[in-house]
Amino acid sequence: MRSVLVAFLILCCGLALTWAGTLRLSEDYSTEDRRPSWTHRHSSLWPCDVADYPEAYVLMHKVEKRLERIDNDQLKNRIVQYVTQQLRQCKSGQQMDEHCVKRSIGYAMSFINHHKENSLTE
């Protein structure tokens, strides 16, 4: 009787571990579905070498919102190039440093404000 109970407990533990592993895998796939609408996997505005990193999405989204209020295409291109350069500096190997990206938000907004003001005075 005792050996049947031990075998039953081992079986239950094995099933629980299998179920937990399956649950974890399904959660990983569902995070792809819950990605924000402003993800940039195949954006024409941002190069793939920076757009494929989810850590960069926040900065790219903020910049895109600011670009919507700018009419000068040359200025827009200059801003995108600057931000792309900032994001490339945040890469190390095949990873993007999230803290570096967050620091770059301030630099990017300052760059945009400075160049936007200069374009108004010209």
TrEMBL record:
Which positions make up the signal peptide? Answer: 1-20
Q: Does the keyword Signal apply?
A: yes
Q: Which UniProt keywords apply?
A: Signal
- KW Signal (keyword) present: yes
Task: Please report the name of this protein according to its UniProt entry.
Answer: Uncharacterized protein
Q: Could you tell me which species this protein originates from?
A: Drosophila willistoni (Fruit fly)
